[in-house]
């Protein structure tokens, strides 16, 4: 062959394998200069009746490489050795047929099709390895752009802190953390009329530290125990209880009563601002802890990486340190906000009552938002409509403006009228059977609009158990179809975001044409759900797993969290390549 002609596959990728002991095989690939092997397209298998079960290969670090065939990938040049653990029921010495499936390219030239090579490996007598914990499973890619967090956990302690602190800063401006702002504002507003900036900063720091500590403890326990962090605190009875707590806090803001510590406690705790839980450091710490457990734990890529790391490596110290840094990053902007609120909030007078009323309404809104995870949409629309109408009445929407009213009076009345109209629309929509909070009147008087094809989501096949998933994925592989397995729960806010905005997008539907669409509803979080998530190394929903037409799981394309339609289309496109 000429010098520029690609080598035959067997010369470009030399595959060798030897047994290094009764419980491990060492696979080796050797490539000439200019050729490279894809890590995520390399896997091993043996015959089902061989008496041997392969564990997860321990892939060494590769090189990040970008090419026109598969985009950004991890590849190996020159030579790579991959230990493969194995469990055995046949402990006698025998010959094992090991099959390697792999793919690679010549740099700047061609990309080879999938290659399959089978070698006989002489296994010595003896027991195999415990593959339930041995080896390093192919890392669950939380998104191509988030692999840096996985690398950070293998770096220095300060690198871990910096990476996760910056991730927390980014999360501070997401809908997951936004509800903490009115909670902290309400705490500061309830601390008294003459709160100083110093006091506001102290309250904010205590709130954030309590949030970070509880966040870290819960994350470490979840990682070590293999539990779903979200589901542990998103069960209906817990959400109902804390929604009720927010209602009680709102009523306190409205002046119906004061939340006071018991008399015996009041005598022991000094310098408590008006003896209100809002101004008490203990009360602030409790609210910070509740925020961590109820409002904050959205499953996001960096959080998922830390919890998965703890679960797989059982390094609670490093994983907990990462979670603490993540929580501090999320709370840093709240400290700045709290310090500013200490200056901006009115000190005394009727304005203070108005500010407290605003925070009271915000607490009621938070209660409704929490219940939206366990209550059907029409009821959420009904509660939202009632709250909006009540606010409109309070703002004077139904009262006549006095002659010569100020511009502020007119502005509040205008806002009240808008809330009255919006609240009425929610009530009418709820009565008409609508389930869209943002478009309550869609379909009222003409039901076709509600079920327009463009607004419908994907036609998923629901699965429950691991056996259901394996059967469906095997059928997809036999048919030569790619597959997508989506993990969903009713209490998962980001799941509903994907359902409403991503899975209804026409571009997404077109990109998924020909896919076998599977969805696991893990709302119950029962033993069957936990076993299914454990098998796929899922921390919590939303999590989307992809398989190509050959039945190979695309770890590099797995999505943890929600994603916009455009980015999701690009991700799906990678499955077909």
Q: Could you list the spans in which at least 5 consecutive residues all have pLDDT below 50?
A: 133-147, 265-279, 448-453
| General shape | elongated
Can you count the beta strands? 16
Rounded to the nearest angstrom, the radius of gyration is 29 Å
Spatial order of the strands in the main sheet?
A: 12-14-13-15-16
Verbal overview:
The chain has helices spanning 9-12, 147-152, 157-171, 180-189, 197-225, 229-232, 236-253, 263-266, 281-295, 301-313, 316-344, 350-371, 377-394, 407-431, 466-478, 493-502, 506-511, 527-535, 565-576, and strands spanning 14-21, 24-30, 35-38, 43-45, 52-54, 63-67, 71-77, 79-88, 94-102, 104-106, 115-123, 461-463, 483-488, 516-521, 543-547, 559-560. The strands form 4 sheets. The chain has a 5-stranded mixed β-sheet with strand order 12-14-13-15-16, covered by helices on one side. Strands 1-2-8-5 form a 4-stranded antiparallel β-sheet. It has 577 residues and is an alpha+beta fold. Helix 4 packs across helix 11 (316-344) and helix 5 packs across helix 9 (281-295). The model is unreliable at 133-147, 265-279 and 448-453 (pLDDT under 50). Helices cover 45% and strands 16% of the residues. The chain is elongated. The protein is built from 19 helices and 16 strands. The longest helix has 29 residues, at 197-225.
